[in-house]
Amino acid sequence: MSCNSCSSSNGAPAGCKNNGTCGTDGCNKLTVFDWLENMEPIGEEVTSDIFEVRFKNGRKQYYKNTKELGITIGDLVAVEAERGYDIGYITLKGGLIPIQLKRKKINPNTTEFLSILRSVSEKDIEKWENSRNKEENIKKKSRELAISLNLKMKISDVEYQGDGSKATFYYTAAGRVDFRQLIRDMAREFNTRIEMKQIGLREEASRLGGIGSCGRELCCSTWLTDFRSVTTSAARYQQLSLNPQKLAGQCGKLKCCLNYELDFYQEALKDFPKSNTKLLTEKGLAYCQKIDIFKKTLWFVYKNDSINWHKISEENVKKILKINQSGKKIDNLEDYTISETLSDINFENVVGQDSLTRFDKKKKKRKFSKRI
Question: Domain tally for the chain?
Answer without folding.
Answer: 4
